[in-house]
Records
---
Amino acid sequence: MRTPIRTMAHNIRWTRGGTVWADWIIRGLPYGLKSNEDKEAVRSLHQGLYRALPSESMLLSLCSGLDPATIVAHMLEGVDPDQCPEWAEECRQSWDSLELLGPGRRVHWLSIPLGANSARDRLWEPIRAGASNFRDMVGLPRAIIAPEEIERRVRQAQEISSVIPAPFEPSPATPAQRAWLHQHMCRRGLFQDLDLPDSAHDAAEQEYRPTSAAALLEPLLDEGGKSDLKGMSRREKATAWIPSKRRYLKVTDACAPPPAPDASGETVDEEVASYQAMLPVVGVPENGMVFPGSEILGRIDGSGQNVDYAVRISSSPGTAVEVQNRRALRNLNEQYDQREGETSHAYNTLDRAAASLAELVAKLEEDQLEVEMKVTMIFAVGAPDPKTCLDQARALSSYLSQAKYTLSQPLGSQLALWWAMHPGVPPSEVVRQYEQISTSSDFSTLVPFTSSHLGDNDGSLFAVNISNGPLFAENVPCGPTSVVLHDLEGSADRQESGSVAVGGELGGGKTATLMKLAGDVFDRGGHGIILDRTKKGEWSIWASSVARAQEVDVADPKCSLDPLRLFGPVIGSRMMQTFLTPLLNVPPTSPMGVLLADVLDKEYLAEFGITSSGDLVPHLTSRCKLNGAEELARLINVFARKDLGRVIFDGSLPPLDLANPAVVIRTNQLELPSREELDREHLFKQLVIEKIIGRALHALIASIARYVCFRDTSQLALFVISECHAVTASFEGERELIEFVRDGRKHRAAALIDIHDAENDLPSDSLRSLIPTRLLMRTSDERMARRGLRWLGADPDNKDLVKLVTKDTSPRLDGNRPPLHRRGEALMRDTTGSIGRIKVLLPATEARRKAIDEAGMAAERAAVEDGDAA
Amino acid sequence: MAEGVIAKWFTRAKKFPILLGKFPDGTRIPGGPYTQTQGVFLLGWLILGGTQIDRWGTDNLLYNLVLLAGSGVGLTYAIGKLPTESRNPLRVLQGLVQAVTAPTAGIYQGTRLHIASPRKARHQVQVLPYVLRGQPSLPAAADRGLDPQPAPRAPSNPAPVPAEAPATTTTRPKSGGRPGRSHPKNERQDEPRRPALTGVQRALAMSAAARDEEGN
């Protein structure tokens, strides 16, 4: 058989067999960890799609490689490498990491023959195809297809695509995409294909755009790889010749040039042969499949193999199969007669067939829109050598057998099945033999067109998508594994909040995740403030790897956070009043509150030359003539005299330089009141000074961060809050954070926070829902895991999900740290609401990665010390 | 479809084995029931064997009949036991034959590829010395009627010229990477770099320059 394509135009292909097909790329619908209601909606859309299909159609789902160069290009989108050399270096290093990982993705394809209902097309098209084949045979030039005919076919295709449910976003396949498909089929398992060409992606489009027939590979097809026997010794041949051991197809490029020496003069061992095994489904679960849980096509990547599959569908409306059903009933009755008196279980078999037939007929009669579907599902695996290919085939069969599906690897039919996976090839006898019968509502439970895509199109390389399953080992993903890009700046441009919240237990990897995100933002030219409450100052350790980072330890300050000195009298006085009000516990309209407002008035400050908080207390003590000034001074002095007050009131300290891109403020020495202490008056009155200062300082830092991050809308700014409960413990801090998250998108600012318990650490509903990107890392406690899942938007009552979070997310094996390839796992909800599993990638740059490791080790030491102390 | 509902396959409603257990008059077929394939095979075997009995038979008619019927029954029984995976047994046999008879060099453009065995090319060429008087030796282009370009003057001591890069370039997977995963090797890789990678190239150049500076 020759390559079926005769002519291509737009998304139409004219075949040598006299049929015309239209091809579309289909968007996979988010599925993965969605709630059951969402899954039912996806299934329902698939049902709608099947009902919209004409009598013949073909679904294809393919594993595509993802070119590391393309990913790096997306990482550099919108960033000037000249201005951000650290980011350029990170991208270069990421390229190397991606080469090792070998990312991929799944491409969904739909092909439908056109004009099946038109007698004219069915008559004339084979004649035209025959004439064209004859011309080719005798060497005459091809007859051009008239533009009117192309337009007519395009219109036919548009009529079909218009009834495909819109969420699938059918996009007409371009000739370049079809050339990619053909090449993918010929090189399956060799990982040599680039990304699927996209009109928006010039590189692959240029690579694959066919300009002549020579653009399509000319495959040399060798059933059973018999050509390999030629070079074997007699002894090897003795076992290798047995046909049943060679149930595969060897595909080579007939026009491939011979191996060429590389620059060093060595001959590169080219893996030009692709060994492929085609496995049709021959057995289905007789007792049915429970949905959700029946999605064998949607979850095929969970097998860990790079599997392609084709589903050839022949569908007929219920009314059209009435005759067939009656014939089946007659045959059944006759079989009862033929097998009467037989000593066997034959009647049981016939009874089951009769019950199944009755159920099918009832389904078709109940719903007038229901269609009967005859589907042939063919799976294909490929590898550079026969042994790996057969191993993959066995592994895939074993995986599907768990769901009670049986695959076959028919001897002598591998070639026919390979062609059956090509759009444009008519269904052969082999295809008919493996047909399984279903209805649109039943077959839709296999949900083939799903996606586990997470994250943005551009941005920093944040994680690997492990929705198919965790990595088997370092750089060994489970099936085609895509990457997750996160674009904080892009979120702001899309008028979405770029804020991210990371939940999980201690040691789950929250801080490393925030460090990764923050580091990328600073490398990409952003700036921000980091509130570090960790005991060992993990962020300070990490900040040593960031250029021009400055640290302020409020317990032992080397510079001042005095708002009057940082921001001047206009803004500083307002901030100071916000700070002093909770600190002194004076209501704003009380006599003391009014006095405070008078003293912090910008004109008053200018009149008396008060430029710092340090000047304020002496002024109130000696020079201020206002009533109650001395009492106010004494009250402020209660706090100003404390070591924790130095960071505000010590005038000898230099002010913090806000021009530094990264500022780390350590507050681990500050104590904080609990919600109960703030809510109950008698507890509130007994608050110790350290807690009062801690509460006010955290609110002040949040206020400073908001001002710093919001003042320049041209630059991305971050407010990183480690141990977020420290800020949300106070109403002021929580309010500041809500305003920051709410208004951040308008100022290109984002908050990165980590939490332990979503409901306690983010007490406000609005704050919980305002942060669109959420991560839930390992949470061993079941109740907290359920709360985390609810916050994520997943089903908290789903036992599998709870088990996933508590037991199978970065699991500690034998009580030790998780193995390297399992660290950083999390469930992620992105800005679109899609939920999936990821493994956060540490920075590719060695220095930054080392800094995160050191910070992590410091955290471990702190945990050990805490344990010892306890 | 409500959540937790069982989705069914209806293959067995229509694809159940059609067996023959009785003759048209209602009497049971001995040893039955048989599949249609078995029935067709046995019938065909008996007809073929019966019509060709002159070729294979002996003088003993009874012996011939017993042999024909016995072999037919035996083969029919064997067909019933073939592991067919719901396929027609004859198709399974056909697959086996196809596998055994598949061409050793593969199929190319729909036809069996036959690679001729190597043969020695023999030459009988006579080369005669002859120079056209009054004309310099002509460049090949001029011979073919093409516009002859003046040849650049060769340097007296020519520098070695690097061999032209081959049309096909290859990339090798990085050590430690997944086997076989590399960029496509095809003829168009020596085309100008892709426009999408401009930023990447700049980044690479910058990081390389930065490393050089650090090295210095």
---
Amino acid sequence: MTKGTSQRRERAFGEVPERADTRYMEVYSRSLFRATLGQVHLSSSSPDPDDGALDLLVSSRRSQIGVQLKSSYSVRFNSRGTYQFAVKPWWVERWHEYDIPPRLVLYSLPRRPPEWCVEKHEGMVHPVIAYWALLDRSVSGPSVTIDRRSRFTAATLAHWCREVDQGMGGLP
Amino acid sequence: MTVTTHADLARYLKRHGWRHGTPGAYGSLWAIDDSDPVGITHSLTSASPDWNIVVQKLAQAMRRDADEVRRDLDHLYVDEIEFAATGVGTDSISVEEGARLFEMARISVRATATTSRGEKPYIRGNYSRGGDAIVERVRFGHTRPGSYVVPVLFSLDPPLTEAARDSESQGAQPELDREIATAAAENAESDQRRASRTLVQAFAALDVFVVQPAKDPSPSVVAPLARAGVSREMVNGIVDFLKSTEDASAMRARPNWAGAPKPPVAPAQVTIEAEAVDVLRKTAEHLRIVPPHKHETVTGPIVGVHVTDGRRDRSLGVSSTIEIQAIRRGRLSTIHVRTSAHQWADVNEWMRKGETVSAYGVVKSVPGRLEMDAAEDLQPLGQQFLTAD
């Protein structure tokens, strides 16, 4: 069969695509992050001005925690259990300016969108793993080290809030 | 717009009764009354990504509108005097009235910028260069919905002080109360604050001496009006606006003083109804007369107090020399005015409150300073007005 003679079938609107689009990976992972916030009754807001180094601010009891959300379908850990995630140098500069170090949350998604969410008998299953890293002064470009043991879950949020609120000092 | 720094914010909060706890690694907790503590990080500024969230939390704790608090913090060094046409129902105003409202604001600003530097009941084109220099930096802000409002913005320079004064006062006065010295120094004004204060006090004087009595004014109103910075030009501007009104029932001037410096003693707002047109017209006529005087009036805040009778029991009153910061012959000056023991309680109170005072008498120039030995009339402008609560 010669190439070019077969016609690619037009995807109908609303059908799950075969290949991932980074925009939609972003939308999907942001929704998963929000879902986790909702589960622990935390709220978030957009940074203002929106400079790109932070995607959102999570409200702890006494302050705000900056979060940079990322997603990838090609997360591969080395023998030491780490993965180097590339970041822009000006993000790193910006992260260093904040008193409270922001966090990077990386969603590792399956490559194919149909696999992002699977309907099973017991309910929806999202075979997605989220990792997180602290973006403090020890982080320098061009990448951030992701540790496979550093999983982001609902419990992580409580840990963040506790740590940040402790850093705000004593009651007036 | 300039960035509001952490230091600016801390100063503002302290002035408004907030207190903070021991600092942590990231920041401190601040609370007012029994509010939920608000966290403020060490490097928070108006350029930080969470600034708006913090402002909202602060506003909530202070039970104020978040936009107002944000404006306060953006305007720590900006005096805003709002001119409004009240009684206008919708978001719009007729072209004629709107134009005259802006014109009244413009003339009032220019006239009081000149009179803030020396009384001039009838300016007659002789606007002072110093006054016009101030006007060049005054700006109209954007109008806001609600009665038709025109905000006039004065960006304040740091206050003017005479450097020599500090060293002189430290050495020569062993009895000098340090606390009094600091409190007095806080009253020093920048040129722009002097102008914005005069603008408001001039409106207040018209209200008290002309509008409220609601009868034909006698020529004796000229003296107190002129002392407060009123001029014929300003009154004519108000008359032109009031007689053009169809929708508006009154004009209102309302100051929102900059958050950082100590606010002057002045009314919270002044409203002049349309019916006042006739008495104001007659006032403008009186302001045409400018009698020559050997005596002068110096008007301004008290920026220094020297107790000359240190050994006396203060409860009996002590005589002192106060320093009034005033513009005299186009230049910033400090005039040393003697006060007697029975005036001590008043003097102390005026200085602590930051009252604008005026002294009427003969100013003598002696080596190194200007003196007024026997002030025939020393009184605060605030005494004549209803002041802000």
